[in-house]
Structure formats: structure tokens, C-alpha cells
């Protein structure tokens, strides 16, 4: 009898100890809804081999979208949890007080987004009196507007159409437009049909303007599943590293998965810059001079201090409470990824001056 009593007590004790573990294991959503545009990116490697699903312990629902406006609508309707899209629509979403926040910057746009025009058009001023298309509320639109101002072209004389990327290609083939600012693989499709590059987003960097892609999360999702956010960024980092180690093999996998030409994938992936912490450090003083300029006010490099953790797995990881800077063009040779968050634990935004900052702060 005593042995039986001890056995029952042991079972109750084991159940008490294991219950929190079982409860924690169940604390994951039925699925993680990730929104993405269709172009070649390094994170697609994680979609191919299901690394994200394995890390989360729950399936990923992949939701395609056509433009920045689309993804903001999806966030507003709570139909997605995480998304990868450009700095311009992200800035617009935060300015409109959508309950979202930036958790990482995987890529700075260099030559992956370009202005393609018909023969005979070679400058922004040459577009006066012509029809130009770009995706609405996108990084391409922002680059076009800034490029037009820098070239001192008369914007009022340029007829603009806002079209989704696939619609741009169709309009080009019909002869409805004379030029388009868009990203790969659509730029390559325009070039294959006679288009010529007259401008690339990278050219804005010498004027201090950086345009980039973000990982963005719903605040409610991040608060409920902070570990999933951290796991997401870890897998995304792993896929950047995988691409860096084997660019050709990675490009082949992505080309096959997306069913687009290999050269298009090579060109698009190489047209992105992958920032590193070492690069960020070299540009610290310049960033501090821009301390009161944030993304909403012009996509300029961000302020902050630079304290690096030598124990961090990646050169692009800072301690909780640190802030990141975005690098200038000379950083493109770096081989490590820089994130806007500390991958050892997701952290919330903190105040930058008197304004709510984009960057993660203390836990």
C-alpha cells in the first residue's frame, strides 16, 4: 500500500512539473501567416526547405501580395502576422498608426529596383511628357519621386500610372507606358522586351538616401508570441548566410521554386546589399549627425549608439537596448547580416528623442 501511495504521489509530482512545459509547447498559433511579394529573396530558401515551419513547430501560411498598399490592407484586417516589404509602405503604415512595427532590415535596395525606359529615353527630364508606371505606395515609387526631384525634372509634366508589377509588364507590352520603376523579375521582363535601364535605386545613396526592405510584425502577434518572432529572424539570418556561402546553388534553388530564369534570380539577389555591424560602426558619426531624422521623414540613416556584443552569433546582432544604423553604399562588400533587433530575444520599441522610435529597445 505504501509503495502504491508513493507511486501515485510520484505521478502527481511529475504531472505538476511537466504541466508548464506542455502548456508552453501548446502556446503557438495554428499557423503563422507570412505575406510576401513574388521576387527572388534569400528567405525563400526557408520556404523551400520548410525551415520556418520546423523552427516554429507550426505551419506557415504563405500569402502573396502585389504592392505595399495590399500588405497594409492585410495588416489592418489582421489577416497576416509577419510580412517582408519595403521601407516606404512601412513608413506609411506607421505614420497611419497601424499596430505594426519593424523587426528587421534584411536588405538595402541597390540595383534590384530600377527605372526601365524605352529607347531614346535616358534621363528623368526626358520623361517629361511621357507616361511612367510604378507600384503604388512602394519603394519604387519613393525612389522615382526622389530621383525626379534630384534631377530637377518637372513632375507635373510626367503622366504617372500606379500599377501592380504584373500589370506594368502587360501595359508595357501594349505600349501604354514609356517607362516603369519596378523590381526584379519584372525589370528583366521589360528589358527582354526592349527596355533600357536609365536609373537604379543605388544611385540615391550618394545623396544620403537609403531605401530598403523590412520584416514587419503585428504588435499583437509579437506580444503573444515573442519567441516565434525571434525564431523567424534566426531562420532568416541562416538563409542569408546560406546564400553568402553558396550564391549559385541558392540562386538555382530559388529559380526552380519560383519558375523564373536563373539569370534573373542572380541579378536580383546581387542587386541587394546585406548590411553588417562592422559597416554600421564605421558610419556611426555620420548617423549621429542625423540623429533627429527618422524613416518617416525621409528614409535617412538612423540615429543611435553602437555597443557590440562579441558573444553574439552574428556580427549584425546587438545587445538589448542598442540601436542600429543603416549603412552607406561602401558597406556592400560585407558578408554578414545586420538586424534591427537582438536575436537573443525580441524586444519592444523605445523612445527616440520625443518621438516613438522604430528601433527595438530594452526588454
Automatic annotation (TrEMBL):
Keywords from the UniProt entry: Signal
Signal peptide feature range: 1-25
Basic and acidic residues bias spans: 299-311
CC annotations in GO: periplasmic space
Subcellular location: Periplasm
Pfam families from the UniProt entry: NMT1_2
Domain of life: Bacteria
CDD domains, per database record: PBP2_taurine (cd13560)
Major localization listed first in the record, in broad terms: periplasm
Domain spans labelled Solute-binding protein family 3/N-terminal: 31-247
Disordered: annotated span: 299-321
Gene Ontology biological-process entries: alkanesulfonate transmembrane transport
Family: Belongs to the bacterial solute-binding protein SsuA/TauA family.
Name of the molecule in the record: Taurine transport system substrate-binding protein
